[in-house]
């Protein structure tokens, strides 16, 4: 999905990844992250958000909650949106502060006291029982916790496993209910996804979920509340002005940090630079040419493969995989011939990923932009250092 664009816009990252694997510094099934490019991307996002009056809470799951990446991003974007309670702990440990907690995954009740003690700017509630649990835990801490109401998404734009939230028509009643609780203050609303990439149009466009969030916001305004509106996903330099025009006050950049939103695959003029590749190696040839797996993501659209052989570079096309397959290997077909390829040759790919759901390693490399690459560490898919 992103290989051709990465070769065009950040070829030094591809070469650094090949060198690291050939030297034995990294194993197959390793994502390589260009820390210089991440730093550039985070700075550009911060400047654009400030220019348009849109606050940004960055997301860490897609790069494996890596502490070096998080600390780099937090220099420009100090607040993060934690997808779940474990990500919240990883973000805090790496020096970020919590802008939002509990949006995609509600906070387990027994984790609320410890995480609310970290004073997140907002916590998202998806139903009245979770709202009451937040209120009780905050009251015990002597706090009034600002909360965002998660608005249930439109059916056509909601991903499997991410349903739930308040119906827009129920918001007035929820505001009355929250007013009777000690420990919470409704501050606004959110939903997911509010923007999504339109393949036919070649650009991000609003979804039906956005309409539902805006309807909830209108109810809040009628009740005398000027709401905070967080409008994920696909937050990037190119969409921040759109978020502002749509009435959003907050965006949540994730893939923009590594230059891997769907728009980055088709537009070479975007501000963010590609900052992530996936490295494997030829596992077998013969009747079933394959690379080792472990890091493939079901919605990643992995397609193109670059193989560094002893005699140069070879191209291949990855097979699609059925839903029931296990990510042991990924089959491929050579494009124009695989002469000279051998088991163990380096294979480089670039596709949309969510590293935190893989079993991959993550290698963080600084100095690529200055042509002096330095491996700063190797981590597991959840951010723990392994080398």
TrEMBL record:
The lineage of its organism: Bacteria, Bacillati, Actinomycetota, Actinomycetes, Jiangellales. InterPro entries: Ala_racemase_N, PLP-binding_barrel, YhfX-like_C. Residues 33-262 form the Alanine racemase N-terminal domain. Residues 277-375 form the YhfX-like C-terminal domain. This is Predicted amino acid racemase. It comes from the Bacteria. Gene3D superfamilies: 2.40.37.30.
């Amino acid at each position: 999905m992103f290989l051709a664009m990465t070769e065009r816009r950040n070829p030094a990252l591809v070469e650094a990844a090949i060198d690291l694997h050939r030297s034995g510094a990294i194993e197959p099934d390793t994502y390589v992250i260009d820390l210089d490019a991440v730093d550039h991307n985070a700075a550009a996002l911060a400047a654009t958000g400030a220019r348009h009056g849109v606050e940004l809470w960055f997301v860490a799951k897609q790069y494996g909650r890596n502490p070096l990446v998080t600390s780099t991003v937090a220099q420009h974007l100090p607040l993060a949106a934690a997808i779940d309670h474990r990500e919240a702990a990883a973000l805090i440990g790496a020096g970020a502060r919590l802008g939002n907690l509990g949006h995609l995954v509600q906070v387990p009740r027994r984790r609320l006291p410890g995480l609310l003690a970290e004073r997140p700017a907002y916590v998202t509630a998806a139903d009245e029982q979770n709202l009451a649990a937040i209120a009780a835990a905050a009251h015990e801490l002597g706090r009034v916790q600002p909360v965002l109401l998660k608005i249930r998404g439109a059916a056509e734009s909601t991903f499997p496993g991410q349903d739930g939230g308040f119906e827009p028509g129920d918001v007035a009643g929820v505001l009355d209910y929250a007013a009777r609780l000690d420990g919470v203050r409704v501050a606004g609303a959110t939903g997911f996804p509010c923007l999504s990439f339109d393949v036919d149009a070649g650009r991000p466009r609003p979804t039906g979920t956005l309409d539902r969030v805006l309807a909830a916001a209108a109810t809040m305004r009628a009740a005398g509340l000027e709401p905070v509106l967080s409008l994920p996903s696909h937050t990037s330099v190119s969409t921040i002005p759109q978020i502002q025009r749509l009435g959003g006050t907050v965006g949540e950049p994730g893939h923009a940090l590594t230059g891997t939103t769907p728009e980055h695959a088709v537009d070479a003029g975007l501000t963010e630079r590609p900052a992530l590749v996936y490295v494997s190696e030829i596992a077998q040839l013969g009747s079933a040419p394959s690379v080792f797996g472990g890091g493939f993501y079901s919605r990643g659209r992995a397609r193109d493969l670059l193989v560094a052989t002893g005699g140069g570079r070879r191209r291949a096309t990855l097979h699609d995989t059925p839903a029931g397959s296990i990510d042991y290997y990924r089959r491929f077909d050579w494009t124009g011939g695989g002469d000279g390829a051998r088991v163990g040759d380096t294979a480089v790919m670039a596709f949309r990923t969510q590293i935190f759901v893989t079993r991959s390693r993550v290698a963080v490399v600084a100095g690529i932009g200055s042509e002096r690459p330095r491996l700063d560490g190797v981590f597991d898919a959840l951010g723990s250092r392994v080398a």
